[in-house]
Amino acid sequence: MSPSRSRNQTELDTEEYGPSRTQQRREALEVLALANQLVELPPSKLARIELPDDVRDEIVNVRRITSHIARKRQLAFLAKVMRRYDEADFAAARAELGENREKQRQETAAMHRLEALRERLLGDDGDAALSDLLDRHPDIDRQHLRSLIRQARIEKDAPNKPPKAYREIFQVLKDLPAGGDAEA
Length: 184
Description:
single chain, mainly alpha, Diphtheria Toxin Repressor, domain 2, 2 domains, 9 helices, about 75% helix, about 0% strand, elongated, disordered C terminus
């Protein structure tokens, strides 16, 4: 805001002329990002979202195109079609994408916790981590888990051996109730 213009004059300009060109561009890029997210969704998840028919048809068209530039151009056209509608028409889609993102973030964090637990089991303080895990989950097959840990340590030292036991430890931890309870 320039010093010679008052706040009231700036508010009047906004009301009179509408949003600035920068604001319009920001909004258009947000719609383009939403369009891209909708195209990336699996068809089963997309079917659950309520969308206008022409938008759904354009999503199918974008998915059909494999050429990079043509796909980009078609995606821009999809965003243009989406801008014809109100913001409220895509509220359900935005909510669904937000829930998916949060769920994905939680799943990723759980996987990282399991990987950290596996590394602790194979590390120098593996016995302490194993006894702690066995205390929390007394129904685990102790003998099988210990043999997997031994095999994984051998595999780690042998460069030509595939990490079969290493992967199997992860599966055992993943199958534990409550995702492995690896927050300790």
